[in-house]
Each structure stands twice: as structure tokens, then as C-alpha cells.
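Usage

Read records sequentially. Each one opens with the input sequence:
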Amino acid sequence: METWPFEGILAAVERGTLPDWRRLVTAVKADPWGPVAQQVLEAVRLSHPYGTAELLEGAVTRARKLAADSERDEVAAEIRELVRSSGLSKQDFAQKTGTSRTRLTRGRAASTGYAAHDVPRGNKSVRPLIIKGINVTLPGDGTASGHVRGAAMITPEQVGERYMAVHHRMFRAVHDEMTGCGLSMARTKVLRRLQEQGPTRQSVLAADFELSPHSITDIVDGLERLGMAERRPDPTDRRAKLVAITGAGQAALDVANATWERLLTQIFGTLDEAERATFVRLLGRLDEATQQLIAASAAPVAPAVPA
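and closes with the structure output:
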């Protein structure tokens, strides 16, 4: 499976059966940050198939958490050994490594800049996660419980669960209809981008969809085999190629677009104009909160500087 092209991973994610998904999960567990795990996440992000998206994303998340926990325990043990061999007290050692005695006692000082740079063992890609984890300040015991007397309060969790449930049912219906019209949602997105932008370099497509060069190559190869896209010389660079939609690809995209418009009209046409305006405004606020969460998760955390 490690040698499968991205199109193979995408096909297994979208149209595979239980044995295929088990093979994917086995490969992910063997290397949570490896190429198979990364391509599974790319395939889920591009296609987001109903049901299997949660299964496979959860498998990657759990595998990475287990690896991170193992890494944390390993580095914490090494830090304890360093404390013992240094002859310093825990308080003095904590000060010199830029952490607190409390965190050191809990084993969390394994994530300081000193440990991450001077104890080069384990999966280095886990260490930024550990570093980030140690810098998170948890709320104290005196925080408000959120309980409201009187009328029952609809909690953010209830809204989120309801939204996700409706979203997945909606996605399943749209995905099934789109696949039935002859184009998967993943290939439809690529063809639509080619229609909008004209002949485009693969590197630009990869950046647009946040895919690796290998993954976008597999998708373009698949479209080219179906006669829906073709590679052309780039007139500005003889070494480069442009990807362009063909007549057959345009015809298939016309069918897919008509199907897409019909489905969305059928679903969101149940809302009147005022309701749609309110819905779009609320989606904007949710999108902003989500982008802030993603930015915070991606932000690098500077390692602590020893005193």
C-alpha cells in the first residue's frame, strides 16, 4: 500500500470496502506521519466521503496521539535521568531548562526547548506537538460551569453535533448523486478549476487544493486517461507543462455542474431569501472561528531558552 499512487488511495477512500479501509488503517498505524497517512488525509480533504471520512480521520488522529504519548513518555524518562545525573535539585534543573518545578514533577518538562534539542530521540515530527502542549494554560477549577437556571440552554456542543449530522447527510446525498452522473466530486473540483483558470500548471493546482505534487499528478493522470484533461507545453517555459480541460472534460463537467446546481437548489431552496442571508452570515462567523483555530494549531511555538 505504501507504493499505491494517490488515485489508488483516493479510490479506496471513496469507493473501497472494509478490507481496503483496514489496510489503510494498518498502514497508518505503522507510520502515523508517513506517506500513506498523509495521502489519506489529502484524499479525505479533497473528497470527504460520507462515513469513511470520520473513520479514517479518526484512525490517523488516534495513531498520532498514541505516537505522541509514547514520545512524551520516552522524553520524560530521559529528562528524569538528566535530572538525576546532573546532581541538581528539581527546582534548579527546572530553572536552567526554562520550565517550572511543577511541570518537571509532572513529566511535562520533557517538552522544553532543552529536551527537544539535546535529546534527539523518537519521532521528531511529534516534538512540536509536545512543545505546543506544554505551553497551553488550562483553566482553573474556579471557572464557570456554564449551567443556566431556568430555561434549558442550547449548548455549542449541541449545535455542533446537529450541524455535523445534517452536513454528513447532505454530503452523502450530494456525493452519491454526483458520482452517479459520471464524475466524482474530487475530479469535478479539478475540472472546474481548469475551466475557471484555463490551462494551469500542476504545481498551481496542488497549491490550490493543498495536495502534494504526487497526489495532484495522480488525479491529472486519471483525468487524462479518461480524455477529460490533457497536458500541453507551457509557452513561457519549455520545461513545464500546463494541464487543460478537453472537450470531453467540458461535456462531463457540464453534466456535473447541472447536477450540482439542481441538488443545492433542492436543498437550500427550502429557505427563503431572508433565511439564506442569515444562514450565510452565521456561516461566515463559524468559518472565521474555524480559521482562527487552524491558524493557532499551525503557529510554531518558540522553544524555551535555558536561563
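Summary fields computed downstream for this record:
- Strands lie at 200-201, 229-234, 237-245.
- The first strand starts at residue 200 and ends at 201.
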